[in-house]
Amino acid sequence: MKLTILGCYSATPRTTTNPTAQVLEINGHMFLIDCGEGTQVELRRNKVKFSKINHIFISHLHGDHFFGLIGLVSTFRLYGRTSELHIYGPKGLKEVITLQLKLSNSWTDYPLRFHELNTKESTLIFEDDRVEVHTIPLSHRVYTNGFLFKEKEGDRKLLIEKVLEANINVAYYRKLKQGHDVENEDGVLIDHTKVTAPADPVKSYAFCSDTAYKPAIASIIQGVTALYHESTFIEEHQHLAPTTKHSTAKQAAMIAKKADVGALILGHYSTRYDSLEPFKEEAKEIFDKVLLADDGKVFEF
Amino acid sequence: MKLTILGCYSATPRTTTNPTAQVLEINGHMFLIDCGEGTQVELRRNKVKFSKINHIFISHLHGDHFFGLIGLVSTFRLYGRTSELHIYGPKGLKEVITLQLKLSNSWTDYPLRFHELNTKESTLIFEDDRVEVHTIPLSHRVYTNGFLFKEKEGDRKLLIEKVLEANINVAYYRKLKQGHDVENEDGVLIDHTKVTAPADPVKSYAFCSDTAYKPAIASIIQGVTALYHESTFIEEHQHLAPTTKHSTAKQAAMIAKKADVGALILGHYSTRYDSLEPFKEEAKEIFDKVLLADDGKVFEF
Asked: A97-108, pLDDT tens digit by residue?
């Protein structure tokens, strides 16, 4: 599982910082999460093969999270994309994208599928045999979802020497990997746990931005491998968090602790700060495994 | 008159090139012309005091000319702008901008005035005591205007030694500057041309992008100080110009020659070219005073 941060600063894009966008590679998928202005350029700068993006998840309709979407949709068209593009986000997203395509007389040649969200409870919005994606209802000034990405458990792994030793016909290997006991060539029932190892542990990633402190999400994201949680402010400006419906680094850490996550990644920093270190220091007072997102940074889990 | 090129490449923004946007400073005004994705960052990079922009002119609704507008409008809001912002562009622009402000629940606190254009003849769309702006109807795949910016003639200049010598009361200086003859203290009529010099010559700028070769615009832009004319292609790809409704460098030069302009600035280059020199070379075969636009370049006239 690989996470590339294209942008992790709040409010306006600047020469030195980008608004929210990140790419999650998980179990063969490449998911784009949020798409602030300039995302298509950041995809290029970070050498992401963006033709592989088939699913885009938009948390909410503040500009720093979606103003780059129409540009990316248009660029896919100019580059002759033919495969379906799925876009998940709040109601209204379809109207705003299609209006711009209509005005520019530039309908996409590829199928553009909108999945407009209005659920206020955690909901399964994408699933295939490798991954599932659920919404994480957040608390912000407009309707906002985080997203939980979970690998599905893979097959158990054959311990090939033990399988051979047990004299099992190759036709049964698949059943073994699926966790079934099988008869060997001598008619003896073989316990699959003796000749296979457990599947790789599943990994999961939760993206939570933007949101006020909302402890209720902990149950949804319990035990995730990595949690990206917004931390717009440090303690010095904690008074701004409730009114703007953002979180402090400490609050992000409190969520991480409550949800017992593998690692907490902080981001969505206010652009008023010169250094990110105070975010880390303050979060670490609550929760130890803290990482700082930054534009262009890559995390592998 | 100062022109700052923020972006002058066609199609998609890249790490090395920007889509169309430029700032024209003329007679005390700061006009933004077109606003491709990333324009607000380019304004910062080029250190343009963008709070001084009160008028934005959008040529047409292809993404590479306006996808950055909503971001700039939003940033003005975040920065506490209070002064009116006037936006001139094709019908539809108001709907697309206001829809996005509505969806993000972020109405501007400053007055946002849309001037939607649908004229097919050159029309005066802005005028004050310093400058006037006219549309230049262009020929493109969607409804498109270029813009002609013209300084208004200023006052004549007092030749102060001659004025003193002629014994003219200071109360008449203003009339002299306005081109009236006045009586001196001795009751003698003084010819204003003897004691004043002509006003500075007026400057003018024509922005013509995007357009197919359209010789009819020459009469509108006759004798302008500087003409920015799109040149998407060089001769090698001239066959693409009519179908895409763009121009070649040579065609831009033919317009410049026909309109007898002071200087031709080429831009809106296709991103397929590694070098801009062929554009200049080919244009120079037709018209001598050719300049190459490039991102970050500043022209003063």
From this structure: 999 999 988 899
